[in-house]
Design brief:
Largest sheet of chain B: 2 strands, antiparallel
Order of helices and strands of chain A: EHHHHHHHEHHHHEHHHHHEHH
Largest sheet of chain A: 2 strands, parallel
Number of helices of chain A: 18
Strand content of chain A: under 5%
Radius of gyration of chain A: 22 Å
Helix content of chain B: over 70%
Shape of chain A: globular
Low-confidence stretches of chain B: none
Distance between the termini of chain B: 50 Å
Number of helices of chain B: 11
Structural class of chain A: mainly alpha
Strand content of chain B: under 5%
Helix content of chain A: 55-70%
Low-confidence stretches of chain A: 361-405
Number of strands of chain A: 4
Shape of chain B: globular
Strand order of the largest sheet of chain B: 1-2
Radius of gyration of chain B: 20 Å
Number of strands of chain B: 2
Structural class of chain B: mainly alpha
Mean pLDDT of chain A: 80
Oligomer: heterodimer
Largest interface: A-B, 53 and 51 residues
């Protein structure tokens, strides 16, 4: 069939699709390498905060977007990872990179312990359990037993990681720039792993479980194992994010691990797009740059003193407003919006599917989300268009007919 | 084990302190239960709304009003605010499912928390004293050592809890409104078919919960001796633990669960001196986990049968 008009369709795994993928990866690589080369260290530090947040938010995406569970205690796992790395580096002299897998394993273990209740409880109860974990964590970190482990109490745990750029690395970057590149490489690995999880059989099983647990179980999915597994994986991502966090943050303090950070993680997840992998990057960027921008805006408002002295508060108000706005206006988040924009020009379809006829925007997403018990999210991170409906498909005849139930 | 474990006065004082804290947990749990019974949702911003109510009382008293007049005014305001909130925001989110409601209440948490800090400052303010709070405002019961006494603040908290429980019981079991409310909680659809205005019931439920929250905020401020914008942070966890223990849909369960949790969090560190530091949040977390694993519906809650 001739392909003259838009959108063009490419088969997944075909040569042109691979070329597109390679081009996208090269572009991302270019941006990452150019950042430390062109920007001074202050700007770089901001981007270096973005990366750990993005990894942690990605964990929430796997948990909430793909498995439909809610965690209000993500900061506990983030904090666990940060403390693990800080204590191992500062007190025990470990090389930093070796602490990342340990932090991840600690997050996985705590995730399994907390996630076991997910076998029995769901929805609100899991929210209650995780909320308690998240609120308890910073309080626990200052207790005597934690101080014996080396948490450093109220003052926090200092951690200084000084790296020299190795001699064989010829690019003109500072030592901080080298740290940034290593951090981004680790994060890229985590994202690659998450893409594999969510696109494969595991991801499909999780989505099926989220949309209809009974039907998924009948089809052979193991709800208890999958849910606990998703919770543990999400916790491990939180912990690795926390571990990366200490690379640029010289101190881990309980004060910086409050419930508010959990709320910001959740806002970032929803804004970026919960059922996406790429949305986590957007979420991380929102977490870093929104307070910055809000701070400047707050400086111009003179209504209350606290606004100019503590711009963080103003940023929190804006975070809350954005969260509500996104829930109402763009419940799928920002990333799916970009995907649908791209699909006007080019779309990717799995092999074995005849060239689709044009689909109305949002059509595919709607059919996916009709049974979604948690929130309406389209599955738009996957690099393929919704499979075109067969002629005579009842969904086509009566879009949204399921709402009547 | 603590060396004082055989001392009656020590034990009684420990228990009284625990019960007083537990009464506050019970009040938080009561507000959670009132919302949960009708809508099966939890208002995670409950604690922030309570703190906001306490700040309103603070502003009114510093404007010169007597504290109890200020409290009654604040109760009316928060009742209206809670009802309006349900009508305008929550009901719209409700139509979108469970997760949007959670997100909505979390957004409310962020907004209210930060707004309070902006308006009233981040520094702790002096405590609210609905009950006399001087050093001598207490009744000595056993001359120790150690002394066993009850402060007026403790007694007042117990009185408020008892009055609220009685009032709720009367409202639910002796009024037409209560009949409608109970009908909505037992079967929402059937109640709607019978002509009970379920929307109004939700609205009044949220209003009542907000009012109970304001009263709780004031009492917590007296009990903790401070008032700041993070007043209710940990207390909300204790309230949720109390509601889990008692059962999320049981008013009596909220009361018993709160008192039991208060007793537990006071007794465990008070009797076993091996425990260092403040582990009460860990106790609350353990209570939640144990209850959910052994008896998910709580002590007094009703089991929900789900149809597939």
């Amino acid at each position: 069939m001739s392909q003259t008009g838009f959108p063009r369709t490419l088969t997944l795994g075909s040569r042109p699709h691979r070329l597109w993928q390679a081009a996208g990866l090269l572009l991302a690589l270019g941006v990452v390498v150019l950042l430390p080369v062109t920007s001074e260290d202050f700007r770089l530090t901001q981007f270096a905060q973005l990366v750990p947040y993005a990894v942690a938010v990605l964990g929430l995406n796997v948990l909430t977007g793909y498995s439909g569970q809610v965690s209000l205690g993500h900061v506990a796992f983030f904090g666990l990872g940060a403390y693990t790395s800080a204590i191992l580096v500062t007190d025990h002299g470990w090389p930093y990179l070796a602490t990342i897998p340990v932090a991840g394993a600690a997050g996985l273990a705590l995730g399994i312990v907390v996630g076991i209740p997910a076998l029995r409880v769901r929805g609100l109860y899991l929210a209650v359990v995780t909320l308690a974990v998240g609120v308890a964590f910073p309080v626990m970190a200052i207790q005597p037993f934690a101080q014996r482990l080396g948490s450093g109490g109220v003052a926090g745990k200092p951690v200084f990681i000084q790296w020299q750029k190795p001699g064989w690395f010829n690019l003109d970057v500072t030592n901080a720039g080298w740290k940034f590149l290593v951090m981004t490489a680790v994060a890229a690995g985590m994202f690659w792993l998450a893409t594999g999880i969510t696109r494969g059989q595991l991801g499909r099983a999780l989505l099926a479980l989220r949309d209809n647990e009974t039907a998924a179980a009948t089809s052979g999915a193991w709800p208890a194992g999958l849910k606990t597994g998703a919770f543990a994986v999400s916790s491990a991502y939180g912990a690795v994010g926390g571990s990366l966090y200490v690379l640029f943050t010289p101190i881990v303090s309980p004060e910086s691990l409050g419930f508010l950070i959990t709320l910001l993680f959740i806002t970032a997840m929803v804004v970026g797009g919960a059922t996406t992998v790429a949305g986590a990057w957007i979420g991380g960027a929102v977490m870093v740059f929104l307070p910055d921008w809000a701070g400047r805006l707050a400086g111009e408002l003179t209504l209350f003193d606290a606004l100019s002295t503590q711009p963080v508060l103003f940023a929190n108000v804006i975070f809350g407003v954005i969260l509500i706005t996104v829930v109402f206006l763009m419940p799928q988040g920002i990333a799916p919006f970009f995907t649908s924009l791209r699909e006007r020009w080019i779309r990717f379809v799995p092999p074995g599917v005849p060239t689709p006829h044009p689909i109305e925007p949002g059509d595919g997403a709607r059919t996916v989300t009709e049974h979604d018990p948690t929130h309406p999210t389209g599955d738009a991170s996957h690099d393929h268009a919704p499979t075109p409906d067969a002629p005579g498909d009842p969904r086509r005849a009566a879009p949204g007919g399921d709402r009547l139930r | 084990v603590s060396p004082d474990a055989g001392n009656v006065a020590y034990l009684l004082q420990l228990a009284a302190g625990g019960l007083a804290a537990g009464a506050l947990y019970a009040l938080v749990a009561l507000a959670i239960v009132i919302v949960y019974k009708t809508t099966l949702r939890i208002n995670l911003a409950q604690g922030e709304l309570a703190t906001l109510g306490a700040f309103v009382v603070l502003s009114l008293t510093s404007a010169g009003l007597p504290v109890w007049v200020a409290i009654i005014l604040a109760l009316a305001v928060s009742f209206a605010a809670g009802a309006v909130l349900e009508r305008t925001l929550i009901r719209k989110l409700e139509a979108r499912g469970l997760f949007p409601v959670i997100l909505g209440t979390l957004a409310l948490f962020l907004i209210v928390n930060a707004t309070m800090a902006i308006v009233w400052g981040t520094e702790p303010r002096g405590r609210l004293t609905p009950f006399p709070a001087g050093v001598d405002d207490k009744i000595d019961l056993l001359t120790g050592p150690p002394l066993f006494y009850l402060t007026y603040g403790m007694l007042g908290t117990f009185a408020v809890l008892a009055a609220l429980m009685l009032g709720t019981w009367w409202l639910l079991n002796r009024t037409k409104f209560g009949l409608g409310y109970r009908a909505v909680t037992s079967n929402r659809d059937a109640a709607a078919l019978l002509g009970i205005p379920i929307g109004r019931m939700f609205m009044l439920g949220w209003g009542a919960a907000a009012a109970v929250g304001t009263l709780t905020g004031v009492l917590v401020s007296q009990s903790l001796g401070t008032l700041d914008f993070n007043l209710m942070g940990p207390i909300l966890i204790f309230g949720l633990a109390a509601a889990t223990l008692g059962g999320f849909d049981s008013v009596a369960g909220a009361c018993v669960g709160g008192l039991a949790l208060g007793l537990l969090t006071a007794m465990v560190p008070g009797l076993f001196t091996v425990i260092e530091g403040d582990l009460s949040l860990l106790v609350a977390l353990a209570v939640i986990l144990v209850v959910l694993l052994l008896r998910p519906q709580g002590l007094f809650g009703s089991k929900r049968v789900e149809r597939v």
